Amino acid sequence: MVELTSSFMLDYETLDRDHQRLADIVNLIVGAIDGDEGEKCEDLVIDFVKSAKAHFAKEEALLAKVGFPNVKRHHDHHESLNFKMEHLIEFAKNAGDNKLARDSLRKELVFFLMDDIITADMDFKNFIEKKSNAEKT
Amino acid sequence: MKGLHVIGVSHAYGNNKVLNNVSLMIPAGELVCLLGPSGSGKTTLLRLAAGLERLQQGEILINDEVVANAKMHLPPEHRGIGLMFQEYALFPHLSIIDNVTFGLDGQPKDKAHRRAMEMLDQVGMTAYAESYPHMLSGGQQQRIALARALAPEPKLLLLDEPYSGLDTNLRGQIREDTLSVLKASGVATVMVTHDPEEAMFMADRIKILGNNGRILQAGRPHDIYYHPQHEFVAKLFGLMNRFESVVKDGHVDIPLGRIPAKGLENGRKVAVLVRPEGVTLTSNGGAKSAAGAPLEVVSTHLLGHDNIVRVALTADNVPASERDVYVRIHHTFEPELSQQITAGIDPEYAFIFPTDEEGESTGTGNRLLSVSQPEAAE
Prior knowledge:
Chain A has 137 residues and is an all-alpha fold. Chain A has helices at 13-34, 41-66, 71-80, 82-93, 99-121, 125-136. Chain B is α+β, with helices and mostly antiparallel strands.
């Protein structure tokens, strides 16, 4: 199961809440796979993808607003994840009766959440910290 | 979450910044390859994870425990890691069983011996327990090195170019054996390599490090090969045919065909990269009006299963720099030098990258969705 420890907190409530929500959905999907309920995966993954896209849009708007210098690069990174999300949905569609699809879905979801989304967002953790310290002083 | 997390790591040797805000995650049971050219920082990243270098900026966690950040540095021996380098580094004066037992010195002798024998069994080397390293081949020594690294049941296994000392035939077999042992162990593994084929074979996920010390792209081997986001990444996997063009009416024209340029504005300069296996050759049987780009075969080279064919595009409007094209085809199709054939393109193997005025790639790639052939040559 995915658990977000303090090292993965940006200390920016909106984004941390989004990350937690995505982690919760991933855990539901992993639970469905482990509980032999692969047929539930498709709806859950569609929800995950919708939530991820909404998170990307919110995050980009927020980063632009606070003046993060690498918004374009982060936007490009988000764009580059589109085909991976298509793959996730494809795996989920087949998860009900295909073990390989279930195994691939579990593996890719964890990488997608932890590596492509959360770890990639650590890119601006320092920036947010500095910005927040500057505002306090 | 079990595994390795590297968060926002930057590292420099003097003024030379080798890692620039690198983050990555490797869950338990997965193998991630760090792939990049010499000097891209991949070995530095491995050494930082191992604790062989002090972290300058960022944070490293193993199984959710912080092992290094700007304030603390857990010594390598307390990190629960296994290391394997290309030199095997077996102790020449110790027998094989003693080499494998070496890392288990905190355990009762009987238990350590049992564990070492278990590991030798896993790598198929129990018969050599009483032998010495010099009596073994390179491949066998590599297996012993793997058994020794895994014997203490590490939380994380770090492999630095582990197969570079082996010859090509042996390498394939050892890779496969290693992979099955690693999967059975469930350990999170990071492997450094500069060999794209090795990374494709071994990895659950590949991280491409560029010369700027940044991770350029991460994904499954399939993602990296079929969806490269940078020209640098596309070129890592061997020969590429490169064409320059400009987006016009939502398309790009190259000598091999017309390509939709999804998401790129008209007037944008682009580079189109086509893998040799993405160039299709069609024999015209002497007819002059078949679709495709006219060409002459310059040379063919048999590579075993495939032929690499070098062709020259002959249409007048092809720039000199884009006339030479490499094509990979099945070995049974060996075009004769004088044969009338034309070239087309398979979109699975073609990628568009925006460029600047000098033709250098500037942004992320645009995967092609469909391709139309040019009008038949007159």
